[in-house]
């Protein structure tokens, strides 16, 4: 259902977009406009008529000479680093993940708490060489690229590890016994999805909780992967709380509310220049989404889904204990929803999913590690130093297991750094994106150098 926006609507949207992205080209701005207004149908020609010219000083600079990140997933994301309040940076809360056995996952790495509001990061214990695999990690919460949903619904892809089944003769896959829709490589992937990463949690299986369909539709129409992750986190907690062990429940609580970098989504968006124009719609959208989540994962006695949901909970445990006031507040209040949304925005890996150790990595525009989604059969190099793995192709897609690889020699005491944004972006674009998405201004060596050139070009 697409509608053509009025001249007036388009005019104000174009002005806001231009002021927020002074240096972006029309293609990217149009893409952003369509993201913000998915129901609008609009041609580039018409958009161009309303789009103010970029200010001459900050016009298109091309893709810069930044390093190309090997076509892999590239940027990761993590706790806010180099926060500078003088710049108006947002402070995210972050702490140590006491449930994570880092020594076991990545023997050459340790956590360090940095002073000056930077939060935690990972530093190296032993020298690493170029091409060396530092660790591999499955998602703690798996989400899929919305564009892959077509493969999931046509049963051509594993709902857990996102491996595409070879065509035209796919191997025997294992279907979800309740909905029959989700397919898995094998029983191991199935059990990981149900118990581990929430790839296909019982509470989010349409065969078990029918109301889920409304929220899946919303995620699809909004193309919103952050929302997908939020729902999976809550389902995972609720599942452990009702049916699981108390240690598994505590692990989720600790990771979410104590360890992962977290900022309230509203606080984050209030910083945006266009906030006054979008605030009303945003808040309304969040409120509606929040109500949908409640209906799916914590319906009240007056909701239609109340009884079916109670039956679902009782199907795996006979005696139910109602949520405490604190639990209601912590997991199902509107403010908590906004905090979860903000947390996912800071921590979700660019190819999808939340990863417990990966989310410790801080940002640099000149990173020393690469984060990759490699194909199932990949094995680490036997001699070092080694070339970095080649870029993936459509036929040779990687799974959602992350592989962290050293891009160069890294010495003991050095911090491991990834780039949260596309390294090909120029200084002002990177600066803007990092500020908007992650709430900080970057002061890495590359930024310092390019800032001087940038100010010269503006002078
Ligand atoms: Zn199912
Ligand atoms: Zn699989
Ligand atoms: Zn930088």
From TrEMBL:
The record's listing under InterPro entries reads: SET_dom, SET_dom_sf
* Key word Chloroplast present: no
The record's section on Pfam families has: SET
* Sequence segments annotated as region (Disordered): 51-83
- For this UniProt record, give its keywords in alphabetical order, as a comma-separated list: Methyltransferase, S-adenosyl-L-methionine, Transferase
> Is Metal-binding included in the keywords of this UniProt record?
no
Q: What name does this protein carry?
A: Histone-lysine N-methyltransferase SET5
* Species name: Kwoniella shivajii
């Amino acid at each position: 259902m697409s509608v053509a926006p009025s001249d007036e609507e388009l005019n104000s949207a174009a002005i806001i977009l231009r002021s927020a992205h002074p240096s972006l080209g029309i293609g990217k701005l149009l893409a952003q406009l369509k993201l913000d207004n998915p129901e609008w149908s609009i041609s580039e020609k018409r958009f161009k008529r309303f789009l103010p010219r970029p200010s001459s000083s900050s016009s298109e600079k091309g893709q810069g000479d930044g390093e190309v990140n090997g076509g892999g997933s590239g940027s990761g994301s993590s706790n806010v680093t180099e926060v500078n309040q003088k710049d108006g940076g947002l402070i995210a809360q972050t702490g140590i993940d006491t449930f994570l056995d880092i020594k076991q996952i990545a023997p050459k790495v340790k956590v360090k708490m940095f002073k000056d509001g930077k939060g935690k990061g990972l530093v190296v214990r032993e020298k690493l060489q170029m091409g060396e695999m530092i660790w591999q990690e499955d998602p703690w919460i798996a989400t899929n690229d919305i564009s892959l949903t077509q493969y999931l619904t046509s049963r051509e892809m594993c709902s857990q590890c996102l491996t595409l089944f070879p065509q035209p003769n796919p191997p025997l896959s294992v279907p979800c016994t309740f909905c029959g829709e989700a397919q898995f490589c094998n029983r191991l992937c199935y059990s990981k999805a149900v118990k581990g990463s929430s790839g296909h949690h019982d509470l989010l299986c349409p065969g078990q909780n029918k109301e889920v369909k409304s929220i899946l539709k919303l995620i699809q129409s909004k193309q919103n992967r952050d929302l997908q992750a939020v729902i999976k986190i809550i389902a995972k907690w609720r599942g452990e709380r009702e049916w699981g062990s108390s240690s598994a429940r505590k692990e989720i609580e600790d990771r979410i509310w104590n360890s992962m970098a977290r900022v309230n989504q509203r606080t984050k968006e209030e910083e945006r220049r266009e906030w006054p124009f979008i605030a009303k719609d945003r808040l309304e959208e969040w409120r509606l989404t929040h109500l949908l989540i409640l209906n799916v994962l914590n319906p009240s006695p007056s909701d239609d889904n109340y009884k079916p949901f109670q039956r679902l909970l009782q199907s795996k445990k006979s005696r139910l204990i109602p949520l405490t006031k604190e639990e209601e507040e912590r997991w199902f209040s509107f403010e908590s929803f906004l905090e979860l949304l903000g947390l996912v925005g800071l921590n979700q890996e660019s190819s999808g999913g939340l990863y417990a150790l990966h989310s410790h990595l801080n940002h640099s525009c000149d990173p020393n590690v690469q984060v990759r989604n490699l194909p199932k059969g990949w094995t680490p190099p036997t001699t070092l130093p080694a070339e970095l793995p080649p870029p993936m192709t459509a036929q040779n897609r990687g799974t959602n297991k992350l592989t962290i690889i050293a891009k160069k020699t890294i010495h003991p005491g050095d911090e491991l750094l990834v780039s949260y944004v596309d390294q090909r972006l120029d200084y002002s674009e990177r600066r803007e994106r990092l500020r908007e998405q992650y709430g900080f201004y970057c002061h890495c060596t590359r930024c310092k150098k390019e800032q001087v050139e940038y100010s010269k070009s503006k002078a």
